[in-house]
Amino acid sequence: MMRRDEISARRKPSSSVLLFQRNPVMMKRKDQTPLVDLCVEKAIDNVKYLGDVSHVDHHMLERILPHCTLEQLMHIEKTNKGMDLSPITDQLWKKFFEKQFGINCTNELYEAKVKKMARAENEAVDRLTKRYKEEDARKQSRQIKTCTKLPPSERRFCGDNGSGYNLSVKSSNIMKKSKKDFLNSFEVKNITAMKRRGIGSTSKYLTF
């Protein structure tokens, strides 16, 4: 025979059973859709009303934006100019382009874009080279200055290879020596002595 405590234990439900009975919603928790998925589904249903998506995480936009039409995607990108959506939208734009113009046009567009980028790089290099040359010429002009006119004080004495200056110096030295010899000559000394004594005029004894 079973004891009374065993019989009461069998009849008494466990606490977990009571909890599920009081909250039947908890029994279905595993079958419920996550909140993030509900938000994504709601956004997809109302994708035509989307504009500013700066507050939406990228992993959610990756699931939402593929459901946009070309016009809707264009509107979203214009509304979010300060936000870089290219990691998500580049593939979407490629699909739109291929759908409208074909895969061959995509290849041609890619080649044209590559050529345009190469041309832009070459132009940038040319501009930098030109600026470098201009800056180098400006520095050279500051360092080297050609003297086309001599100052008046220097031009007066300078000739070819300095010969004019040397000639004038030699002439000056000769004149000084001649004057000194003249003053020290015998006749001049006699005239000077006579003047001191007051005898005759100097012109009478001075002969050249």
From TrEMBL:
<feature type="coiled-coil region">
    <location>
        <begin position="103"/>
        <end position="138"/>
    </location>
</feature>
<dbReference type="GO" id="GO:0070449">
    <property type="term" value="C:elongin complex"/>
</dbReference>
<protein>
    <submittedName>
        <fullName>RNA polymerase II transcription factor SIII (Elongin) subunit A</fullName>
    </submittedName>
</protein>
<dbReference type="GO" id="GO:0006368">
    <property type="term" value="P:transcription elongation by RNA polymerase II"/>
</dbReference>
<keyword id="KW-0175">Coiled coil</keyword>
<dbReference type="Pfam" id="PF06881">
    <property type="entry name" value="Elongin_A"/>
</dbReference>
<dbReference type="InterPro" id="IPR010684">
    <property type="entry name" value="RNA_pol_II_trans_fac_SIII_A"/>
</dbReference>
